[in-house]
Specification:
The protein is mostly helical. It has helices spanning 10-21, 24-44, 49-66, 77-95, 102-105, 114-133, 136-147, 152-159, 163-180. Belongs to the sigma-70 factor family. ECF subfamily.
Length: 187
């Protein structure tokens, strides 16, 4: 529990362990959790695969080095780590002389407050549970397509499954997820 009595996310607890005890296992767990997510974010932001990997490495090294600066009262682990990665991405764009996309150059209007962070953690937990409830074949296709950022053709090449089977599994999984998470939609 935090000082305000709110439950801390697993990632925040891990980052506190890195901050307070230089816990290598906690850092490994953070790296395993965030590296693919950061890479996907960076790729969506216009970075090539190799560049995204380099930025992820730099960002996670900064997480290790700057862990003493982490304050869970000011930001969740996710917000803190994503901000570090975003700043590293901007640094790389500037080193290359590339223009920084407007959405990266602007600082967010405000840090998410505790209620927003808690709501996001709860939504993330619901999504994780809904994914876990999918049949394994459907879950695998959704994870490969959306978390692994593979095209349907790439999934077919990796798995050896027909393209139609892959598309059907993804469609069925997304329909089920939409139904399961319908109350999370915002107006």
């Amino acid at each position: 529990m935090s000082e305000t009595g709110e439950a801390l996310s697993e990632q925040t607890r891990l980052l506190i362990a890195v901050r307070d005890r230089r816990d290598r296992q906690a850092f490994a767990a953070l790296f395993a959790h965030y590296a693919p997510r950061l890479k996907a974010m960076l790729r969506r932001g216009g970075m090539a695969d190799a560049q995204a990997e380099e930025v992820v490495q730099e960002a996670m090294l900064a997480v290790w080095r700057k862990a003493a600066q982490f304050d869970p009262a000011r930001a969740s682990a996710s917000a803190w780590i994503y901000r570090i990665a975003r700043n590293r991405q901007i640094d790389m764009f500037r080193r290359e002389g590339r223009p920084v996309p407007d959405e990266l150059a602007e600082e967010p209007a405000h840090d998410p407050d505790a209620a927003d962070a808690l709501a996001l953690d709860q939504e993330t937990r619901r999504l994780r549970d809904a994914l876990g409830a999918l049949p394994p074949a459907q879950r695998e296709m959704v994870e490969r397509a959306y978390l692994g950022e593979l095209s349907h053709g790439e999934i077919a090449a990796v798995t050896g499954l027909p393209l139609g089977t892959i598309k059907s599994r993804i469609r069925l999984a997304l329909t089920r997820l939409r139904h399961e998470l319908k109350d999370l939609r915002r107006p």
